[in-house]
Design goal:
globular; Rossmann fold; 2 domains; alpha/beta; single chain
């Protein structure tokens, strides 16, 4: 749904000198099925994941929720299925699965990736990144390392945006009310862009911002980090 985010991840990692490969056999991690109770249907996806990504030094995703699924819930899936082979494979591969900001800051120790983005930005910490992966201040450190970027604090930043996957569908009114609070906080910052590590949250927040004609755009952290002076100039001319 958001191919530019994946392309941005490749741009950033290659800029830092890493070889990036994209296994063609990969598919969904199975989080959507797992979260809605279809655990048996998530099993083939877990097996496919460990098969397709075996042998890589590091596996990176621009989604804290996907990384959480693999690191936190694949062991549960394997245990429930009584699949010892899957459990062993998950035990070996899960520590090598990283959300992008965690990989850059905590593993590669490179909070400055050579980005340039001369705009006023606020950051929304997503629930999976904040509460499950505990990526801490990694995204903030990366944003502070972007030349030209003005980072403004988001009020009640740690509050959920209200998306929660199918929660937004099954509990639409509650979800919309939670999102309204988040959007009001974002607008208080007078930011040009709101940034996060999960496109699912950005999709939810962005829909509300768009309906309010707020003038605030959403952008994934990876796309900010991939931006250079040339890319920023092209963005400014497009606006």
């Amino acid at each position: 749904m958001f191919p530019d985010t994946g392309k941005a991840v490749v741009t950033v990692l290659e800029r830092l000198g890493h070889q990036v490969e994209f296994p063609a056999g990969q598919a969904c991690c199975g989080q959507m099925h797992f979260n809605t109770g279809y655990r048996e249907d998530a099993l083939p996806m877990a097996r496919g994941f460990v098969r397709n990504f075996a042998g890589y030094e590091a596996i990176v995703t621009p989604s804290a929720s996907c990384a959480s699924m693999i690191r936190e819930y694949y062991p549960t899936l394997a245990e429930e299925a009584g699949d010892q082979a899957l459990a062993a494979a998950v035990s070996e591969i899960a520590p090598r699965v990283h959300e992008l900001s965690g990989l850059l800051v905590d593993v590669l120790r490179q909070p400055d990736v050579g980005a340039y983005f001369p705009h006023r930005v606020t950051y929304h910490p997503t629930c999976h990144g904040l509460r499950m992966l505990k990526i801490g201040d990694a995204p903030y450190r990366l944003l502070r390392g972007v030349r030209g970027l003005t980072l403004v604090e988001l009020p009640e930043a740690e509050a959920c945006c209200g998306f929660g996957g199918t929660f937004a569908v099954k509990n639409a009114e509650v979800s919309a009310a939670i999102c309204a609070d988040k959007v009001a906080a974002i607008r208080q910052t007078r930011a040009e862009f709101v940034v996060a590590t999960d496109n699912s949250c950005l999709m939810h927040i962005g829909g509300a911002l768009s309906r309010q004609r707020s003038g605030v755009a959403t952008k994934h952290l990876a796309e900010i980090l991939a931006s250079t002076e040339l890319a920023s100039a092209e963005l400014a001319s497009a606006e």
